[in-house]
Amino acid sequence: MTVGVSRGGTGRVVSGLVAGAVVLASGGAGPAAAEASGVGEYVALGDSWAADATLSQVSARFVPVGCAQSAGNYPKQVAAALGPARFVDATCGGATTANLTEPQSLPVGADNPPQFDRLGPGTDLVTLEIGGNDIGLASAVSECVTGDPGTAVCRDTYVRDGVDAMTQRIAAAAPKISAAIDGIRARAPRARILLVDYLAGIGTTGGCFPVIPISDADASWLGNKLLELDRMLAEVARAQKVEFVDTYAGSGGHDACQAPGVRWVEGLIPLSVNPVGPAVPFHPNQLGADHQARTVLAALRR
Questions:
Q1: N or C: which end of the chain has fewer CB within 10 A?
Q2: Does the active-site annotation cover 291?
Q3: How is 91-148 classified by DSSP, letter by letter?
Q4: 139 a catalytic residue
Q5: What is the pTM of this model?
């Protein structure tokens, strides 16, 4: 999920930041030793929370640089642990479910081809993390920024007469996620499919104004909308009979309000100590990527 701090498109936010960053071809957490997994071909699909969008360790090995894909993201760590004969990481910052079947235009570099183009009859493992951009949760975060801790800018904008427009968007996105799973099955009928949710980027009981200039009311609203999105993903996984990977459950106490070295998601200030350097605001840092990798690997070993 691409979360920016301006009202521009989410892909533009990440790509614009990347344009001014130093691009590295390596870095991130040390890969785990390959195990005898039996996985022949692994394809990773998803948005920037799957790409673990970064400014300090961008990899263009699998996708254009504008995707801001991390050299240490969880798909690469999972592939390093499993040792498949073929691995392709199609994840890209700003991606929606539409970009699974359509090219994704990026202001920096070439377009990212449709992510489903990487699938084939030989694909036997797929991870998918997507949906945050479909519901517009990314732009909502930037709209919540305020200088007045007593306001509820986002909640009052999205909730009218007891109807929460974001809740409606989450419900409307469910068929898109379900269709994405159908699309994977059509292209990779042998694949084991894991649907991955979003870890806790913000709490559900308040924020940390002014460190992150979002009021407690809006921080709680955002945190609960993220949890609501994850619950929708879990419901789709059950209905579609695919495996659900719950990265949220183990991420409590590591949200963007926590201290450096404790938080797994960066806040508004685009600097990180994990790794040291510029960061994409409101995205998993390397500690978050490591948690995602551990959780996915644990699910695969069940």
A1: C
A2: no
A3: --TT--GGGGTS-B--SSSSPBPPGGGG--TT--EEEEE--TTTTTHHHHHHHH--S-
A4: no
A5: 0.89
In DSSP terms, 71 is beta-bridged to none
**Backbone torsions φ then ψ of 173, nearest 5 degrees:** -80, -20
Catalytic residue among 15, 48, 142, 272: 48
> Could you say which of 56, 70, 139, 283 is catalytic?
283
Peptide bond into 210 cis (omega under 30): yes
Identify whether the C-beta of residue 128 lies closer than 8 Å to the C-beta of residue 137: no
Give CATH for domain 10-300. 3.40.50.1110
SS3 of 231, please? helix
Q: Residue 35: its pLDDT value, please?
A: 65
Reply yes or no on whether the pLDDT at 1 is more than 70: no
d(CA 40, CA 125): 8
Confidence of residue 23 (pLDDT cuts 50, 70, 90): very low
